[in-house]
Write a structure and sequence with these properties.
The complex is a heterodimer. By secondary structure, chain A is mostly helical. Chain A has one domain. Helices cover 76% and strands 0% of the residues of chain A. Chain A has 5 helices and no strands. In chain A, helix 3 (22-34) crosses helix 4. The longest helix of chain A has 22 residues, at 64-85. Chain B is mainly α. Chain B folds into 2 domains: 5-91, Orthogonal Bundle (Rna Polymerase Sigma Factor, Chain: A); 118-205, Winged helix-like DNA-binding domain superfamily/Winged helix DNA-binding domain (Arc Repressor Mutant, subunit A, Orthogonal Bundle), CATH 1.10.10.10. In chain B, 62% of the residues lie in helices and 0% in strands. Chain B is built from 10 helices and no strands. Chain B has helices spanning 5-16, 22-27, 31-42, 45-61, 72-92, 129-140, 144-155, 160-167, 171-193, 201-205. In chain B, helix 3 (31-42) crosses helix 4, helix 5 crosses helix 8 and helix 6 (129-140) packs antiparallel against helix 9. The longest helix of chain B is centred in the last third of the chain and has 23 residues, at 171-193. Chain B is elongated, with a radius of gyration of 20 Å. Mean pLDDT of chain B is 83; it is low at 195-208. Classes of the chains: A mainly alpha, B mainly alpha. Chains A and B meet through helix 1, helix 2, helix 4 and helix 5 of A and helix 2, helix 3, helix 4, helix 6 and helix 7 of B.
């Protein structure tokens, strides 16, 4: 089956996730071979997702981990005291 | 990076039988995930950090109720989501509408923006600070239900099933929301991806 661009766009997300069935995957790939627009859309989307997952894009506040474990240590200590009382 | 399930189950069993200090180790691989989940809901660094701490403490206190049939990461994410929603409700008071999960039925424009010159952009473009900032802004501006799914799936890299489980929605809904979220991001970021190469007008002139 020959796919139209619009049809390819509907499946880009699932295509990237590898969750389209084999037949559709083949149709999409055939379309991509000759369609510059869809190829560019696919590449740009994929790259945006790589960038989204990159740790440097969404950074944690400085000292976040240290403060979290400090707080946790306090909690563990107070839980210990409680159980001693019992 | 993720601990194997067996190792994790072993850690949990030991914590529950008294080796409490091991909870530090159990939680370490998921610190980032907890923070990002909170941030995607409250959208404020301080609130997200306070919420992340609360969620981790809550996970510790309720560890005995964790059942091995779910993944620990999914269970923890659910706790983080609940903590975030609680904070949001408190902050917004009566104006709670914005976190209501709207139906997907409304028609929207979820088509990507066409560009033809992506391939000509050097990889270094992805390293540009400006692009990262734009991406953060674009994610922050996504409607709540889309931002939530995208955060779990594409920032925290949970799979479709885990995302569905953590949010209490179907895998079908996850896929629809994810697709729309990704297309919205693509559309928002295309202006930052364009180089000086002129677009071919005749191509875009057609009804797509």
């Amino acid at each position: 089956m020959k796919l139209e661009c619009k049809h390819v766009w509907e499946h880009i997300s699932e295509y990237i996730d590898g969750s389209v069935d084999a037949k559709l995957r083949e149709d999409i790939e055939r379309h991509l071979e000759h369609c510059e627009i869809c190829s560019a859309i696919l590449d740009s989307t994929r790259n945006i997702l790589i960038l989204t997952a990159d740790d440097r894009t969404f950074e944690l506040p400085v000292g976040y981990s240290e403060r979290l474990h400090e707080r946790l240590a306090k909690e563990l200590k107070s839980a210990e005291k409680d159980s001693e009382k019992e | 990076m993720e601990m194997t399930r067996t190792k994790e189950a072993g850690l949990i069993a030991r914590i529950l039988t008294g080796e409490k200090e091991l909870f530090h180790e159990l939680i370490r691989p998921y610190e980032r995930m907890v923070y990002l989940t909170l941030f995607s809901i409250v959208r404020n660094e301080t609130e997200a950090e306070d919420g992340a701490q609360e969620a981790v403490i809550s996970a510790y206190r309720h560890l005995a109720s964790f059942r091995g049939d779910a993944k620990f990461s999914t269970w923890l994410t659910t706790i983080a989501i609940n903590e975030g929603r609680k904070r949001l409700r408190k902050a917004k008071g009566a104006a709670e509408d914005s976190i209501e999960e709207k139906e997907e039925s409304h028609e929207g424009d979820y088509t990507p923006a066409p560009l033809t010159d992506w391939r000509e952009i050097p990889l270094e473009a992805l390293e540009r600070k400006e692009l990262r900032e734009a991406l953060r802004g674009a994610v922050a501006e996504l409607p709540y239900i889309y931002r939530q799914v995208l955060t779990l799936r594409d920032l925290e890299e949970l799979n479709i099933e885990e995302t569905a489980e953590a949010l209490g929605i179907t895998t079908g809904a996850v896929k629809v929301r994810l697709h729309r979220a990704r297309m919205m991001l693509q559309k928002r970021l295309v202006p930052y991806l364009k180089t000086t190469a002129p677009a071919r007008r005749s191509f875009f002139g057609r009804a797509l």
